[in-house]
Amino acid sequence: MPGPFPQTPDLSGFNAPVRIECDLEELIVEGEIPAEIDGSWYRLGPDPYFPPSREDDIFFSGDGFVSRFQIRDGKASYKRRYIQTDRLQNDKAAGRSLYGAYRNPFTDDPSVQGSIRGTANTTPVFHGGKLLALKEDYLGMEIDPDTLETRGWWDFDGKLKSETVCAHPRIDFDTGEMFIFGFEAGGLCSRDVSYAIIDKHGELVSEQWFEVPYVSWMHDFVVTQEHVIFPVFPHTTDLDWLKAGNHHWKWDPSLPTYVGIMPRYGSVKEMRWFKGPAWSGFHFLNGFSDGNKVHMDFSVMRTSPFPPVREASGVPFDMADIQIPYMRWTFDLSQPGEGWTETPLCPAVGDFPRIADKDHMKDYEIGYYINYDPANGEPLMCGPTYMGFNTLTRMNVKEGTHTSFTMGPGFTFNEPIHIASKQPGHEGYLAMVVDLHEEWLSDVVILEAAHIERGPIARIKMPKRLKNQIHGVWVDSARRRGEL
Ligand code: V55
Ligand code: FE
């Protein structure tokens, strides 16, 4: 019999596992879901099936779950399944967790040494007719978009040589191409990074490898219509650190930040490296090229946002290190030197950015993300940072203005998705799961993207608390049919 889960911040309260597989039809809807919304919203996250073998297991380690809200004709349904990874199957056969620290195979039970550790728990992506569940530690797992059954690891018909695929592919809305990379591509703690282009049909058309100056937690990257940008921030690791039994990452601010930029259809030999002091960042909202200037917009920090990483690295926490406005970094390829310029875009301090698919990789105006605003309540314990987001922000990067939506104290927000409208000139909709801490439930709110400050136009009531997700994707039914 599995014992109880440890009562640690990573695994208790709103971070406690939910462990449910279910099918819910005819969800209760307050307000009205616009009739034009027709598609599937896939969400992924970690949800440990068994209590971990280690009391100090972290949020990111959990077995992957995939869930789908299907929305059509003003109605919604919900389906949720575990992703049947090798790891989950091995654990189920043993009746307990056989795997040790986060991304550290040295800490696994001898019976599973050498087995595939991928948890597929981070990002769903729909491309080339396939739904993939990604985590940066291994290949993507193919999932049946209708039944959510697990189909198997996807190596692009045997063509991809990289051992890993990142959790943040970038899709060019106009060409339909998908750009991917993988870090530690050549094995645990290798400095190899792969960079591959997948055509709109899902065929791998190119893969190149290059080395980064040190092993880095390259969680995301940026692709513009002309360039690709690889930021290297000093969350790092090495074999000695892993052999000592640690979780994968340590924060080492003595290392510089590197940013590699190359033409997106070019050779990795053309990579130009920029260099600066230690910064940290996870998600990029967007990037674009303007002649010799290349811009990337993101939430930047001066430390690791994750308490277990800071603790293991012996870094004290200073709130100021994570309270930095949303930033634009601009690299001028016509100038010599290693530096770049930094321009604040919006004062709201947050992450989980979203942009309309059509604006991706281009000069744009509107971005959305969630942030923590102390004016809207005390921080609530949830997520990997132990500080739930309580505000949704819409920023206009051209005007330098922003608007926001909050539900006040007692609520935290998961990553929003953007749903394009079919009406000309309409900015579309945002949807996000909201955790109701007092009621111990979760709801979905749907907002007009242009008017988030007016509050939800519809609210879907869930009968259960949902596990904190990581990322999600909206797959319009028209896109599913190949029409978009
Ligand atoms: C993230 C999530 C992960 C992970 C690494 O969103 C980074 C950040 C759910 O697992 O392993
Ligand atoms: Fe991410």
What can you tell me about this protein's structure?
This protein has about 475 residues and is mainly beta. It has one domain (about 120-480): 7 Propeller (Methylamine Dehydrogenase, Chain H), CATH 2.130.10. It is about 5% helix and about 40% strand. The chain has 4 helices and 33 strands. Strands 2, 28, 29, 30, 31 and 32 form a 6-stranded antiparallel β-sheet that branches. The longest helix is centred in the N-terminal third of the chain and has 9 residues, at about 85-95. The N and C termini lie far apart (about 50 Å). The model has no long low-confidence stretch (mean pLDDT about 95). The structure holds 4-hydroxy-3-methoxybenzaldehyde and fe (iii) ion (FE). The site of 4-hydroxy-3-methoxybenzaldehyde (V55) has 8 residues, from loops.
Strand-helix topology:
Blueprint: E1 22-24, E2 28-31, E3 39-46, E4 64-72, E5 75-82, H1 86-94, E6 123-127, E7 130-134, E8 140-143, E9 150-154, E10 170-171, E11 178-183, E12 192-198, E13 204-211, E14 222-223, E15 227-232, E16 235-236, H2 239-243, E17 250-251, E18 257-263, E19 272-276, E20 280-290, E21 293-301, H3 307-313, E22 326-332, E23 341-346, E24 350-354, E25 366-371, E26 391-396, E27 401-406, E28 411-413, E29 417-419, E30 429-436, E31 441-448, E32 458-461, E33 472-476, H4 477-480
Antiparallel strand pairs: 1-5, 2-32, 3-4, 3-33, 4-5, 6-7, 7-8, 8-9, 10-11, 11-12, 12-13, 14-15, 15-18, 16-17, 18-19, 20-21, 21-22, 22-23, 24-25, 25-26, 26-27, 28-30, 29-30, 30-31, 31-32
